[in-house]
Amino acid sequence: MKPLVLYNTRTRSKEIFEPIEAGHARVYTCGPTVYAPQHIGNLRSQLLADLLKRALLAQDYRVTHVINITDVGHLTDDADAGEDKMERAAAERGKTAAEIAAQYTEQWLRDRERMGCLAPEVLCKATEHIAEQIALVEALERNGFSYRIDDGIYFDTSKFSRYAEFARLDLEAQLAEGRIGDVPGKRNPADFALWKFAAPDVRRQQEWDSPWGRGFPGWHIECSAMSRRYLGDQFDIHTGGVDHIGVHHTNEIAQSECADGVHPWVRFWLHNEFLNFRGEKMAKSTGNLYVLDDLSDRGIAPLAFRYFSLQAHYRQQQTFTDEAIESAATGYDRLVNHAAELREADGERRADKLEPLRERFWDAVWDDLNAPRALAVTWEAVRSEGLNPAERWALLSEFDAFLGLDLQNATPRSQTTESDPRIDGLLAEREAARARRDFAESDRIRDLLVEEGISIEDTPDGPRWRRG
RNA sequence: GGCGGCGUGGCCAAGUGGUAAGGCAGGGGCCUGCAAAGCCCUGAUCCCCGGUUCGAAUCCGGGCGCCGCCUCCA
Question: What ipTM did this prediction achieve?
Protein backbone atom coordinates (compact mmCIF):
# COMPACT_ATOMS: atom_id res chain seq x y z
CA MET A 1 0.00 0.00 0.00
CA LYS A 2 1.18 3.48 -0.79
CA PRO A 3 1.89 5.75 2.16
CA LEU A 4 -0.53 8.32 3.52
CA VAL A 5 0.67 11.85 2.91
CA LEU A 6 -0.68 14.66 5.07
CA TYR A 7 -0.22 18.41 5.01
CA ASN A 8 1.42 19.27 8.30
CA THR A 9 0.83 22.79 9.56
CA ARG A 10 3.88 22.46 11.79
CA THR A 11 6.22 22.16 8.82
CA ARG A 12 3.95 23.82 6.27
CA SER A 13 4.45 20.92 3.89
CA LYS A 14 3.09 17.56 2.90
CA GLU A 15 4.80 14.69 4.67
CA ILE A 16 4.53 10.93 4.70
CA PHE A 17 2.69 9.85 7.83
CA GLU A 18 4.52 7.52 10.14
CA PRO A 19 3.28 6.89 13.66
CA ILE A 20 5.50 7.01 16.71
CA GLU A 21 4.38 3.54 17.68
CA ALA A 22 4.35 1.10 14.75
CA GLY A 23 0.87 0.22 13.56
CA HIS A 24 -0.89 2.54 16.00
CA ALA A 25 -2.09 6.07 15.19
CA ARG A 26 -2.93 8.35 18.09
CA VAL A 27 -5.13 11.29 17.19
CA TYR A 28 -6.57 14.19 19.16
CA THR A 29 -9.36 16.40 17.85
CA CYS A 30 -10.41 19.70 19.38
CA GLY A 31 -14.10 19.26 20.02
CA PRO A 32 -16.86 21.76 20.62
CA THR A 33 -17.45 24.27 23.36
CA VAL A 34 -20.97 23.40 24.34
CA TYR A 35 -22.55 26.68 25.36
CA ALA A 36 -24.47 26.94 22.08
CA PRO A 37 -25.57 24.67 19.26
CA GLN A 38 -22.87 23.53 16.89
CA HIS A 39 -23.61 24.70 13.36
CA ILE A 40 -22.70 23.04 10.09
CA GLY A 41 -19.52 25.10 9.83
CA ASN A 42 -18.34 23.65 13.12
CA LEU A 43 -19.15 20.21 11.83
CA ARG A 44 -16.58 20.63 9.09
CA SER A 45 -13.84 20.05 11.63
CA GLN A 46 -15.47 16.76 12.56
CA LEU A 47 -15.52 15.80 8.91
CA LEU A 48 -11.78 16.36 8.68
CA ALA A 49 -11.23 14.23 11.76
CA ASP A 50 -13.49 11.55 10.36
CA LEU A 51 -11.85 11.44 6.94
CA LEU A 52 -8.48 11.24 8.63
CA LYS A 53 -9.62 8.39 10.83
CA ARG A 54 -11.13 6.49 7.92
CA ALA A 55 -7.93 6.92 5.91
CA LEU A 56 -5.83 5.66 8.83
CA LEU A 57 -8.12 2.66 9.23
CA ALA A 58 -7.88 1.98 5.51
CA GLN A 59 -4.12 1.98 6.00
CA ASP A 60 -4.67 -0.76 8.60
CA TYR A 61 -3.59 1.30 11.57
CA ARG A 62 -5.09 0.78 14.94
CA VAL A 63 -6.51 4.21 15.72
CA THR A 64 -6.98 5.78 19.11
CA HIS A 65 -9.04 8.87 18.52
CA VAL A 66 -9.67 11.27 21.37
CA ILE A 67 -12.13 14.15 21.19
CA ASN A 68 -12.72 16.60 23.97
CA ILE A 69 -15.86 18.36 25.01
CA THR A 70 -15.26 21.79 26.43
CA ASP A 71 -18.02 22.06 28.98
CA VAL A 72 -16.47 24.72 31.13
CA GLY A 73 -16.95 28.31 30.12
CA HIS A 74 -14.29 30.31 28.45
CA LEU A 75 -14.46 34.02 28.77
CA THR A 76 -15.79 36.27 26.10
CA ASP A 77 -12.50 38.09 26.18
CA ASP A 78 -9.17 38.08 27.91
CA ALA A 79 -9.98 40.65 30.56
CA ASP A 80 -11.38 40.50 34.04
CA ALA A 81 -14.60 41.91 32.75
CA GLY A 82 -15.03 39.04 30.34
CA GLU A 83 -18.21 37.09 30.79
CA ASP A 84 -18.20 33.35 30.94
CA LYS A 85 -20.19 32.10 27.97
CA MET A 86 -21.37 28.97 29.69
CA GLU A 87 -22.63 30.86 32.71
CA ARG A 88 -24.21 33.49 30.55
CA ALA A 89 -26.05 30.93 28.44
CA ALA A 90 -27.27 29.26 31.61
CA ALA A 91 -28.52 32.52 33.05
CA GLU A 92 -30.27 33.48 29.83
CA ARG A 93 -32.01 30.14 29.58
CA GLY A 94 -32.80 29.69 33.24
CA LYS A 95 -30.81 26.49 33.42
CA THR A 96 -27.64 25.33 35.07
CA ALA A 97 -24.36 25.35 33.24
CA ALA A 98 -24.34 21.58 33.43
CA GLU A 99 -27.75 21.38 31.79
CA ILE A 100 -26.67 23.67 28.99
CA ALA A 101 -23.54 21.62 28.43
CA ALA A 102 -25.47 18.35 28.44
CA GLN A 103 -28.04 19.61 25.98
CA TYR A 104 -25.55 20.82 23.40
CA THR A 105 -23.23 17.88 23.88
CA GLU A 106 -26.10 15.58 23.08
CA GLN A 107 -27.08 17.56 20.01
CA TRP A 108 -23.52 17.57 18.76
CA LEU A 109 -23.06 13.84 19.26
CA ARG A 110 -26.30 13.20 17.45
CA ASP A 111 -25.35 15.47 14.54
CA ARG A 112 -21.95 13.88 14.32
CA GLU A 113 -23.46 10.44 14.08
CA ARG A 114 -26.12 11.49 11.59
CA MET A 115 -23.34 12.87 9.44
CA GLY A 116 -21.63 9.51 9.40
CA CYS A 117 -18.70 10.38 11.65
CA LEU A 118 -17.19 7.39 13.41
CA ALA A 119 -17.33 7.51 17.19
CA PRO A 120 -14.05 8.36 18.93
CA GLU A 121 -12.36 5.82 21.18
CA VAL A 122 -12.34 8.42 23.94
CA LEU A 123 -14.74 11.29 24.45
CA CYS A 124 -13.53 13.37 27.37
CA LYS A 125 -15.01 16.35 29.15
CA ALA A 126 -13.03 19.19 30.62
CA THR A 127 -15.05 19.25 33.83
CA GLU A 128 -14.24 15.59 34.46
CA HIS A 129 -10.50 16.17 34.19
CA ILE A 130 -9.87 19.02 36.57
CA ALA A 131 -7.29 17.00 38.49
CA GLU A 132 -5.29 16.35 35.31
CA GLN A 133 -5.37 20.03 34.46
CA ILE A 134 -4.20 21.02 37.91
CA ALA A 135 -1.41 18.45 37.67
CA LEU A 136 -0.25 19.95 34.39
CA VAL A 137 -0.21 23.46 35.81
CA GLU A 138 1.82 22.14 38.73
CA ALA A 139 4.31 20.62 36.33
CA LEU A 140 4.66 23.97 34.57
CA GLU A 141 5.09 25.66 37.91
CA ARG A 142 7.82 23.20 38.88
CA ASN A 143 9.60 23.80 35.62
CA GLY A 144 9.50 27.56 36.11
CA PHE A 145 7.17 28.53 33.30
CA SER A 146 4.42 30.10 35.36
CA TYR A 147 3.85 33.11 37.58
CA ARG A 148 1.08 34.31 39.81
CA ILE A 149 -0.78 37.59 39.59
CA ASP A 150 -4.01 38.78 41.20
CA ASP A 151 -6.05 37.29 38.42
CA GLY A 152 -4.58 33.81 38.32
CA ILE A 153 -1.63 31.64 37.36
CA TYR A 154 -0.16 32.59 33.99
CA PHE A 155 2.18 31.01 31.49
CA ASP A 156 5.29 33.07 30.82
CA THR A 157 5.70 32.90 27.06
CA SER A 158 9.09 34.60 27.19
CA LYS A 159 10.48 31.48 28.89
CA PHE A 160 9.61 29.30 25.92
CA SER A 161 11.95 30.10 23.07
CA ARG A 162 9.91 28.28 20.44
CA TYR A 163 6.68 30.06 21.37
CA ALA A 164 6.30 31.94 18.08
CA GLU A 165 7.60 29.12 15.91
CA PHE A 166 4.49 27.04 15.25
CA ALA A 167 2.26 29.84 14.04
CA ARG A 168 5.21 31.90 12.74
CA LEU A 169 4.12 34.78 14.88
CA ASP A 170 5.76 38.16 14.88
CA LEU A 171 5.09 39.06 18.49
CA GLU A 172 6.62 42.51 18.18
CA ALA A 173 4.45 43.36 15.22
CA GLN A 174 1.38 42.01 16.95
CA LEU A 175 2.20 44.11 19.92
CA ALA A 176 2.03 47.18 17.73
CA GLU A 177 -1.61 46.56 17.05
CA GLY A 178 -2.27 45.87 20.70
CA ARG A 179 -4.46 43.34 22.37
CA ILE A 180 -7.92 44.00 23.61
CA GLY A 181 -8.71 44.19 27.29
CA ASP A 182 -5.43 43.00 28.62
CA VAL A 183 -4.94 41.85 32.17
CA PRO A 184 -2.90 44.03 34.55
CA GLY A 185 0.24 42.31 35.71
CA LYS A 186 0.87 40.12 32.71
CA ARG A 187 4.55 40.08 31.85
CA ASN A 188 4.14 39.64 28.13
CA PRO A 189 1.16 40.34 25.90
CA ALA A 190 1.01 36.74 24.72
CA ASP A 191 1.00 35.27 28.23
CA PHE A 192 -2.16 33.36 29.00
CA ALA A 193 -3.97 32.00 32.03
CA LEU A 194 -3.37 28.46 33.23
CA TRP A 195 -5.69 28.80 36.21
CA LYS A 196 -8.06 31.67 36.92
CA PHE A 197 -9.06 32.70 40.42
CA ALA A 198 -12.71 32.96 41.21
CA ALA A 199 -13.70 36.55 41.78
CA PRO A 200 -14.47 36.97 45.50
CA ASP A 201 -17.80 38.65 44.92
CA VAL A 202 -19.13 36.43 42.17
CA ARG A 203 -20.42 32.96 42.77
CA ARG A 204 -19.82 30.82 39.71
CA GLN A 205 -21.50 27.53 39.02
CA GLN A 206 -18.29 26.09 37.66
CA GLU A 207 -15.36 26.47 40.04
CA TRP A 208 -13.08 24.10 41.83
CA ASP A 209 -10.54 23.99 44.63
CA SER A 210 -6.91 23.99 43.63
CA PRO A 211 -3.48 24.44 45.21
CA TRP A 212 -3.86 28.13 44.30
CA GLY A 213 -7.32 28.58 45.71
CA ARG A 214 -10.78 28.34 44.30
CA GLY A 215 -11.10 28.96 40.60
CA PHE A 216 -11.32 27.39 37.21
CA PRO A 217 -8.91 26.21 34.52
CA GLY A 218 -7.49 28.40 31.79
CA TRP A 219 -8.83 28.01 28.34
CA HIS A 220 -6.08 25.96 26.72
CA ILE A 221 -4.96 23.65 29.48
CA GLU A 222 -7.70 21.05 29.05
CA CYS A 223 -6.44 19.87 25.68
CA SER A 224 -2.89 19.52 26.92
CA ALA A 225 -4.04 17.71 30.04
CA MET A 226 -6.52 15.33 28.47
CA SER A 227 -4.40 14.41 25.48
CA ARG A 228 -1.57 13.64 27.89
CA ARG A 229 -3.80 11.38 29.90
CA TYR A 230 -5.18 9.40 26.96
CA LEU A 231 -2.44 9.61 24.34
CA GLY A 232 0.72 10.14 26.34
CA ASP A 233 3.42 12.81 26.41
CA GLN A 234 3.77 12.74 22.65
CA PHE A 235 1.41 11.59 19.95
CA ASP A 236 0.89 11.54 16.23
CA ILE A 237 -1.81 13.87 14.96
CA HIS A 238 -3.79 16.80 16.30
CA THR A 239 -6.69 18.27 14.32
CA GLY A 240 -8.77 21.40 14.56
CA GLY A 241 -9.90 24.54 12.77
CA VAL A 242 -7.46 27.04 11.25
CA ASP A 243 -8.56 29.64 13.75
CA HIS A 244 -6.78 27.67 16.44
CA ILE A 245 -3.32 27.88 14.94
CA GLY A 246 -2.30 31.24 16.34
CA VAL A 247 -3.59 31.05 19.88
CA HIS A 248 -5.11 27.83 21.10
CA HIS A 249 -2.73 25.38 19.50
CA THR A 250 0.26 27.65 20.00
CA ASN A 251 -0.57 27.72 23.70
CA GLU A 252 -1.25 23.99 23.89
CA ILE A 253 2.19 23.37 22.43
CA ALA A 254 3.80 25.75 24.90
CA GLN A 255 2.12 24.04 27.85
CA SER A 256 2.77 20.48 26.78
CA GLU A 257 6.33 20.91 25.59
CA CYS A 258 7.29 22.85 28.69
CA ALA A 259 5.53 20.55 31.13
CA ASP A 260 7.01 17.36 29.73
CA GLY A 261 10.18 18.60 28.08
CA VAL A 262 9.29 17.11 24.73
CA HIS A 263 9.57 18.33 21.17
CA PRO A 264 7.74 17.99 18.96
CA TRP A 265 4.88 17.26 21.30
CA VAL A 266 2.68 16.39 18.31
CA ARG A 267 4.15 15.32 14.99
CA PHE A 268 1.33 16.24 12.63
CA TRP A 269 -1.11 19.14 12.85
CA LEU A 270 -4.08 19.19 10.49
CA HIS A 271 -6.32 22.23 10.19
CA ASN A 272 -9.56 22.60 8.32
CA GLU A 273 -10.61 25.82 6.64
CA PHE A 274 -13.94 27.51 7.21
CA LEU A 275 -17.33 27.27 5.67
CA ASN A 276 -18.37 30.60 4.19
CA PHE A 277 -21.93 31.72 4.15
CA ARG A 278 -23.37 34.96 2.82
CA GLY A 279 -19.94 36.37 2.10
CA GLU A 280 -18.35 35.68 5.47
CA LYS A 281 -17.50 32.78 7.68
CA MET A 282 -20.33 30.89 9.28
CA ALA A 283 -20.15 31.84 12.93
CA LYS A 284 -21.96 31.59 16.22
CA SER A 285 -20.97 35.08 17.23
CA THR A 286 -22.83 36.70 14.33
CA GLY A 287 -25.70 34.25 14.08
CA ASN A 288 -24.75 33.75 10.46
CA LEU A 289 -25.39 30.02 10.52
CA TYR A 290 -27.40 26.90 9.90
CA VAL A 291 -27.55 23.88 12.12
CA LEU A 292 -28.05 20.39 10.75
CA ASP A 293 -31.69 20.40 11.79
CA ASP A 294 -32.28 23.50 9.65
CA LEU A 295 -31.18 21.47 6.66
CA SER A 296 -33.26 18.47 7.68
CA ASP A 297 -36.29 20.73 7.96
CA ARG A 298 -35.72 21.65 4.35
CA GLY A 299 -35.55 18.03 3.30
CA ILE A 300 -31.78 17.88 3.06
CA ALA A 301 -30.43 14.76 4.72
CA PRO A 302 -27.43 14.96 7.04
CA LEU A 303 -25.53 12.68 4.70
CA ALA A 304 -26.32 15.03 1.84
CA PHE A 305 -24.48 17.66 3.85
CA ARG A 306 -21.60 15.22 4.20
CA TYR A 307 -21.66 14.72 0.43
CA PHE A 308 -21.64 18.48 -0.01
CA SER A 309 -18.61 18.72 2.26
CA LEU A 310 -16.76 16.00 0.37
CA GLN A 311 -16.96 18.12 -2.76
CA ALA A 312 -14.37 20.55 -1.42
CA HIS A 313 -10.93 19.87 0.02
CA TYR A 314 -10.72 20.33 3.78
CA ARG A 315 -7.92 22.88 3.49
CA GLN A 316 -9.95 25.21 1.27
CA GLN A 317 -12.73 27.50 2.34
CA GLN A 318 -16.01 26.23 0.99
CA THR A 319 -18.92 28.38 -0.06
CA PHE A 320 -22.30 27.40 1.29
CA THR A 321 -25.23 28.62 -0.77
CA ASP A 322 -28.75 27.32 -1.06
CA GLU A 323 -28.09 26.39 -4.65
CA ALA A 324 -24.89 24.55 -3.76
CA ILE A 325 -26.44 22.48 -0.97
CA GLU A 326 -29.45 21.63 -3.08
CA SER A 327 -27.19 20.58 -5.94
CA ALA A 328 -25.29 18.38 -3.54
CA ALA A 329 -28.52 16.90 -2.21
CA THR A 330 -29.58 16.01 -5.73
CA GLY A 331 -26.20 14.50 -6.47
CA TYR A 332 -26.24 12.49 -3.25
CA ASP A 333 -29.76 11.28 -3.95
CA ARG A 334 -28.71 10.01 -7.35
CA LEU A 335 -25.60 8.33 -6.00
CA VAL A 336 -27.70 6.52 -3.42
CA ASN A 337 -30.09 5.47 -6.16
CA HIS A 338 -27.27 4.00 -8.16
CA ALA A 339 -25.93 2.21 -5.11
CA ALA A 340 -29.34 0.75 -4.39
CA GLU A 341 -29.74 -0.49 -7.93
CA LEU A 342 -26.28 -2.00 -8.00
CA ARG A 343 -26.26 -3.44 -4.54
CA GLU A 344 -27.66 -6.85 -5.34
CA ALA A 345 -25.90 -7.30 -8.64
CA ASP A 346 -24.23 -10.64 -9.22
CA GLY A 347 -21.50 -11.34 -11.64
CA GLU A 348 -17.86 -11.69 -12.25
CA ARG A 349 -15.57 -9.13 -10.67
CA ARG A 350 -12.55 -8.78 -12.89
CA ALA A 351 -9.63 -7.47 -10.89
CA ASP A 352 -7.93 -5.98 -13.92
CA LYS A 353 -11.00 -3.88 -14.61
CA LEU A 354 -11.32 -2.69 -11.02
CA GLU A 355 -7.71 -1.90 -10.38
CA PRO A 356 -7.29 1.35 -12.32
CA LEU A 357 -10.20 3.03 -10.58
CA ARG A 358 -9.28 1.61 -7.18
CA GLU A 359 -5.81 2.95 -7.57
CA ARG A 360 -6.96 6.42 -8.55
CA PHE A 361 -9.45 6.54 -5.72
CA TRP A 362 -7.00 5.60 -3.01
CA ASP A 363 -4.25 7.73 -4.51
CA ALA A 364 -6.58 10.68 -4.00
CA VAL A 365 -7.20 9.66 -0.40
CA TRP A 366 -3.52 9.16 0.36
CA ASP A 367 -2.81 12.58 -1.10
CA ASP A 368 -3.84 14.64 1.92
CA LEU A 369 -7.37 13.26 2.09
CA ASN A 370 -8.45 14.61 -1.28
CA ALA A 371 -12.14 13.83 -1.03
CA PRO A 372 -13.22 15.82 -4.12
CA ARG A 373 -10.93 13.79 -6.31
CA ALA A 374 -12.05 10.58 -4.65
CA LEU A 375 -15.66 11.52 -5.22
CA ALA A 376 -14.97 12.23 -8.88
CA VAL A 377 -13.50 8.73 -9.26
CA THR A 378 -16.57 7.34 -7.52
CA TRP A 379 -18.80 8.88 -10.18
CA GLU A 380 -16.57 7.51 -12.89
CA ALA A 381 -17.01 4.07 -11.36
CA VAL A 382 -20.77 4.48 -11.36
CA ARG A 383 -20.82 5.37 -15.03
CA SER A 384 -17.90 3.40 -16.36
CA GLU A 385 -18.99 1.57 -19.48
CA GLY A 386 -16.29 -1.05 -19.05
CA LEU A 387 -17.69 -2.36 -15.76
CA ASN A 388 -20.60 -4.66 -15.07
CA PRO A 389 -23.01 -3.88 -12.22
CA ALA A 390 -21.29 -6.25 -9.81
CA GLU A 391 -17.99 -4.55 -10.46
CA ARG A 392 -19.46 -1.10 -10.01
CA TRP A 393 -20.91 -2.16 -6.70
CA ALA A 394 -17.61 -3.70 -5.64
CA LEU A 395 -15.98 -0.32 -6.12
CA LEU A 396 -18.76 1.71 -4.53
CA SER A 397 -18.87 -0.42 -1.41
CA GLU A 398 -15.10 -0.31 -1.08
CA PHE A 399 -14.94 3.45 -1.59
CA ASP A 400 -17.63 4.07 0.97
CA ALA A 401 -15.24 2.99 3.70
CA PHE A 402 -13.69 6.41 3.17
CA LEU A 403 -16.64 8.41 1.89
CA GLY A 404 -18.93 7.34 4.74
CA LEU A 405 -22.10 7.92 2.75
CA ASP A 406 -23.81 4.76 4.00
CA LEU A 407 -24.15 3.33 0.51
CA GLN A 408 -24.42 -0.20 1.94
CA ASN A 409 -27.86 0.62 3.22
CA ALA A 410 -28.98 2.55 0.17
CA THR A 411 -32.63 2.22 -0.66
CA PRO A 412 -33.89 3.36 -4.03
CA ARG A 413 -35.92 6.46 -3.46
CA SER A 414 -38.61 5.17 -5.78
CA GLN A 415 -38.93 1.76 -4.18
CA THR A 416 -41.56 1.89 -1.55
CA THR A 417 -40.94 0.07 1.68
CA GLU A 418 -44.49 0.53 2.82
CA SER A 419 -47.63 -0.74 1.21
CA ASP A 420 -50.86 1.15 1.06
CA PRO A 421 -53.91 -0.76 -0.13
CA ARG A 422 -55.58 2.33 -1.55
CA ILE A 423 -52.53 3.48 -3.47
CA ASP A 424 -51.68 0.00 -4.64
CA GLY A 425 -55.28 -0.34 -5.76
CA LEU A 426 -55.16 2.87 -7.73
CA LEU A 427 -51.93 1.79 -9.32
CA ALA A 428 -53.53 -1.49 -10.35
CA GLU A 429 -56.41 0.43 -11.92
CA ARG A 430 -53.93 2.58 -13.73
CA GLU A 431 -52.08 -0.47 -15.03
CA ALA A 432 -55.35 -1.87 -16.27
CA ALA A 433 -56.12 1.40 -18.05
CA ARG A 434 -52.70 1.40 -19.61
CA ALA A 435 -53.16 -2.16 -20.76
CA ARG A 436 -56.25 -1.19 -22.65
CA ARG A 437 -54.46 1.94 -23.85
CA ASP A 438 -56.88 4.22 -22.04
CA PHE A 439 -54.20 6.82 -21.35
CA ALA A 440 -56.65 9.54 -20.39
CA GLU A 441 -57.70 7.39 -17.47
CA SER A 442 -54.19 6.28 -16.54
CA ASP A 443 -52.94 9.86 -16.58
CA ARG A 444 -55.91 10.96 -14.50
CA ILE A 445 -54.99 8.46 -11.82
CA ARG A 446 -51.37 9.50 -11.91
CA ASP A 447 -52.27 13.18 -11.61
CA LEU A 448 -54.48 12.29 -8.68
CA LEU A 449 -51.58 10.69 -6.86
CA VAL A 450 -49.16 13.44 -7.82
CA GLU A 451 -51.46 15.92 -6.15
CA GLU A 452 -51.03 13.92 -2.96
CA GLY A 453 -47.29 14.23 -3.33
CA ILE A 454 -46.80 10.73 -4.60
CA SER A 455 -44.64 10.20 -7.63
CA ILE A 456 -44.76 7.24 -9.91
CA GLU A 457 -42.14 5.56 -12.00
CA ASP A 458 -43.01 2.98 -14.60
CA THR A 459 -40.29 0.37 -14.89
CA PRO A 460 -39.90 -2.88 -16.82
CA ASP A 461 -40.85 -4.62 -13.56
CA GLY A 462 -43.99 -2.57 -13.12
CA PRO A 463 -44.76 0.75 -11.48
CA ARG A 464 -43.18 1.99 -8.26
CA TRP A 465 -44.27 4.87 -6.13
CA ARG A 466 -42.95 7.01 -3.35
CA ARG A 467 -44.04 9.92 -1.27
CA GLY A 468 -42.44 13.33 -1.46
C1' G B 1 0.89 46.21 11.63
C1' G B 2 1.91 40.62 11.52
C1' C B 3 0.26 35.79 9.79
C1' G B 4 -2.73 32.44 6.53
C1' G B 5 -5.96 31.41 2.37
C1' C B 6 -8.68 32.38 -2.13
C1' G B 7 -10.08 34.44 -7.25
C1' U B 8 -11.10 28.08 -12.72
C1' G B 9 -17.59 27.24 -17.45
C1' G B 10 -24.53 29.62 -14.80
C1' C B 11 -23.58 27.45 -9.41
C1' C B 12 -20.36 24.30 -6.09
C1' A B 13 -15.46 22.73 -6.99
C1' A B 14 -10.67 19.40 -8.34
C1' G B 15 -6.16 20.27 -10.83
C1' U B 16 -0.22 23.54 -8.96
C1' G B 17 4.85 23.04 -15.47
C1' G B 18 2.77 19.76 -20.78
C1' U B 19 -2.35 22.00 -23.94
C1' A B 20 -8.67 22.16 -18.00
C1' A B 21 -11.69 16.06 -12.79
C1' G B 22 -16.46 15.53 -10.84
C1' G B 23 -21.44 17.05 -9.19
C1' C B 24 -25.66 20.37 -10.03
C1' A B 25 -28.19 23.46 -13.54
C1' G B 26 -28.89 24.43 -19.08
C1' G B 27 -29.16 22.60 -24.38
C1' G B 28 -29.61 18.22 -27.83
C1' G B 29 -30.63 13.00 -28.37
C1' C B 30 -32.09 7.75 -26.84
C1' C B 31 -35.74 5.13 -24.06
C1' U B 32 -41.22 5.82 -22.78
C1' G B 33 -48.25 5.98 -24.93
C1' C B 34 -46.83 10.41 -22.11
C1' A B 35 -44.10 11.21 -17.83
C1' A B 36 -40.46 9.73 -14.20
C1' A B 37 -35.88 7.30 -13.66
C1' G B 38 -31.65 6.11 -16.45
C1' C B 39 -28.17 6.50 -20.54
C1' C B 40 -25.39 9.26 -24.45
C1' C B 41 -23.67 13.96 -26.48
C1' U B 42 -22.75 19.13 -25.41
C1' G B 43 -20.06 24.27 -22.92
C1' A B 44 -14.54 27.39 -19.82
C1' U B 45 -7.83 28.64 -21.71
C1' C B 46 -8.42 29.39 -15.78
C1' C B 47 -9.23 38.07 -12.15
C1' C B 48 -5.64 41.77 -14.84
C1' C B 49 -0.52 43.12 -16.49
C1' G B 50 4.54 41.77 -17.08
C1' G B 51 8.36 37.95 -16.73
C1' U B 52 10.79 32.83 -16.68
C1' U B 53 10.17 28.46 -19.95
C1' C B 54 10.07 24.80 -25.97
C1' G B 55 5.57 24.97 -23.03
C1' A B 56 2.01 27.97 -17.21
C1' A B 57 -4.41 27.94 -14.64
C1' U B 58 -0.04 25.78 -12.40
C1' C B 59 6.67 29.26 -11.20
C1' C B 60 8.38 34.68 -10.30
C1' G B 61 7.15 40.11 -9.95
C1' G B 62 3.33 43.93 -9.82
C1' G B 63 -1.79 45.13 -9.54
C1' C B 64 -7.22 44.55 -8.42
C1' G B 65 -10.95 41.92 -5.63
C1' C B 66 -12.45 38.66 -1.59
C1' C B 67 -12.27 35.52 3.09
C1' G B 68 -9.98 34.30 7.72
C1' C B 69 -6.71 34.57 12.29
C1' C B 70 -3.95 37.88 15.70
C1' U B 71 -10.04 38.55 21.59
C1' C B 72 -14.11 33.20 22.65
C1' C B 73 -14.44 30.89 17.86
C1' A B 74 -14.29 24.76 13.56
Answer: 0.96
